[in-house]
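re: ur question from earlier - yeah i can do the single chain one, its not a big deal. heres the input i used so u can compare w yours
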Amino acid sequence: MKYFCNPVNVNYRYQFNQDPRRGGALQICREAADPSMILFQGRYYIFASMTLGVWVSDDLVSWENRRLPDELPLYDYAPDVRVIGDWVYFCASNREHNCDRWRTKDVLNGPYEKIEGSFPYWDPNLFLDDDGRVYFYWGCSNATPIWGVELNPDTMQPLGEKTAVIDGHPYEIGYERVGEDNSTLPASEAEVEAKYQAFIKARGVPEAAIPADVKPMIRGMFSNRPFIEGAWMDKFEGRYYLQYAAPGTQYNTYSDGVYVSDSPLGPFTLAANNPYSYKPGGFLPGAGHGSTMQDKTGNWWHVSTMRISVNHDFERRVGLWPAGFDKDGELFCNQRYGDWPMAAEGDPWRDPEWMLLSVGKAATASSFLPGHEPDKATEENVQSWWRAASKGRDEWLCVNLGEVFDVHAVQVNFADDRIDVPCPGEIRPGSQARYIDEAEQLTQWKLEGSVDGENWFVIEDKSDARTDLSHDLVVREEGFNARYLRLSDMAVPFEQNPCVSGLRVFGLGSGERAAASVFTATRMGDLDMVVQIKEQGNALGYNILFGSSPEKLYHSSMVFAAGSHRVGALIKDREYFVRVDAFNENGITEGICVKL
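and the output i got, formated as tokens:
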């Protein structure tokens, strides 16, 4: 059996951003986002923003990075890739000029044939219908909708006028609200207008001089309205499933919703199961702006963007989850334990085979800097990390699981902490000026285990690795006994002090499972619910599951403490059912299901 663990284990390239929204100061972080995944000629390909290449796999587990030709718009966001016949079509986003397309019959070797574009767009998505007709969707704004239009399949030029297909409704759709945990409603029209007028007055620009298409964008800066973006279309049993992302990539609630229709250009109706891709909790949250496709055996998968957003709002990764359609034609995605190791095959609602052993466990280190203590590496929070006091290879980090466990997997997650190095290349100008690091960086380490803390054995030695895998996964299906896990002999890009956001250990305990949860769930207004969980002595965490029926608890929010938890993803006038499952090192205990 083959296993993987989110985020996808690939090399995430460094970006040297000169963001005008932050005064033009240089900001450095790793980034990949907005993935389009396709199956073409028996291989899987993921194209993601700001990677300079494509990730290729034969099994959805092991991925190889391959560079793409420079003639492609590799510095433009949200690459859209679709298979049409023997061709793969590629395009990406640019608001400043007409966007061209390219097509090829050989993704890795080319050549790529250029197709002239006729209009600018952002967050594109091309769709081939069963009858050979081609449709195009685009949009990324908190002021304008997602658009759709039919294209001429030979020229890729529009046939007719564009149609608005999806707009935001944050007063009725809870998961579209901005802020952490969907916490903020939009500003009133009067508030937005006042801030808009103050903005243009401060800059001494006559309103008449502002282009008509720019005014909504300026007002959007002050609206607290969600970004409605990232369209992706699938067709299943004659129905059209138009997916979209909201409310913003920097929030833990970045998610994908779905509308359905009997026609590719609508009208569209909000599906019963929404948001269908939603992961606000756990180690690495976020599950928005992605793509949905079938593998070689007909199983469905969803790949989308996960959020870090510490060094820059666009510090992001890519996640992959099993998806599918239920007997009623509802599109779903299983993210209940969405950043734990999972098998690459099996029932889409399979539980994890191995449990999280490291959360909240004691950690020690050779050294640390204040605010970055060793226990940050076991908090299950990608936004905090242990940082060594030096870059020396004698630095080490050790996790004490508290007792001997049967360990099967370890995920080693390195973080970046305010990197301060010169930009190694020329910053490309534009609204999001940047340079993408071309160098093949290296991330090296050694992982050891021990039963007693005195006698150590090597689990994995990558101290001479020629790879740059900042979220690397070690799997031992047969398992091994260990109480202590020690990470040492580390070297990371740009000679940083090693920073580890998660030394995450998975396996099985032999004790009792957590007691069944005791909880209450109360609806608060139209869009929120509060789940109050009573403390259970042997639980390490809880999964709050909810959905439209006891059989369709498709949404989940993982938490690591009892108490009061607000979930802000509800939809007005819809009925919900709630269940809280408890878990510890020994397994998962399902709770009772209640009507909200």
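The radius of gyration is 24 Å. not sure if urs matches, ping me
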